[in-house]
Write a structure and sequence with these properties.
Helix content: 55-70%
Shape: elongated
Order of helices and strands: HHHHHHEEHEEHEHHEHHHHE
Mean pLDDT: 77
Largest sheet: 3 strands, mixed
Number of helices: 14
Radius of gyration: 31 Å
Amino acid sequence: MKKRKIVTIDFIFIIYMIIATIITIIQETDFTVMHEGLKGNGSVPPSQFVEMYISLIFVCVFITIIKNIYVIVIYLGIKIGTKMYNKQRLSQNDFQKTKEYYREILQGYSPAVLSFIDDFEIEYPSTIIASLLQLSKNHFITMEQGIIKKNTNEKLNDTNLESNETYILNHIKEDKVILNDIEFKKKLTEDALKKGLIKNIQEVKEKKKKKIIKAIIAMFIIFFVTFIAISTIGNLNIAGGILPVLLFLIMVILLVGTFFYPFVLMISYAVYLTKNQNCPYVRSEKGEEINKKLEGLKIYLKEYSYLEEKKESEIVIWEEYLVYSVLFNQNTKIIETYKKHIEID
């Protein structure tokens, strides 16, 4: 869905600019003179006449860009804002965008946290079953033929379990895992923040606000300097030569930069906030790096492993690879066996 939206925006923008360019060419073209020139009845030879009209087309393209500068600004702002949002919040479709494989186990992160930082949602029951397999690997529980049992010999005080894993472990009762969705998501959020994988959206907003304020201040400074420069140049005798052309180009660049950059920044910021209005957290740079590795690991397991039919008892052989195969919904056999033991309030 996301890809189709981006293509639609690009398509509308390209069609609009083509139509606008055609309209400009029609407005700037004298078709009577054109007809006479092509027939050879004009004062200009036909070959030179064609070159003139090719030049006219390029001029019309430039005029179209200038006349629609704010349309271009809005388009770029939407694109940049969407790109910022996509970078921090990926969907399952983003696994299709990368072809890079990653084979190493992501040590130090629970399966639930890795799943959570993808799209800030919890996929039941695969996330819980993957977490149970991880607990089984570390000998906190046993899983066999659909039966879940806690290992009372293990002490939680001397472990590196994340709070979401401890929460799951403490809510195993009578061969079932009974969880509260809100409480479990709170635990996941705490773990992801502690690991530095996500950050509060308010922090991001403050940084972007400061960046926009700096851009606006820079806009006024450049505008003021440009105004002074134009006034000064007006009193100088610089007729002839290349200097007037260079000064004109510098003034154009300054004026475009004065308005172009701040407006693009503000529009992209507005798009970013609109898309993130219902999410209090975004992925950090560290979280982005970990998530990309997870994407590569998913592709690797899907194309180069045979974990779909493995049993939970084979965790001693496959370890985290078997955990990830459940997390990625590749091993449906284990999921179907244990999903009836998961209850979410």
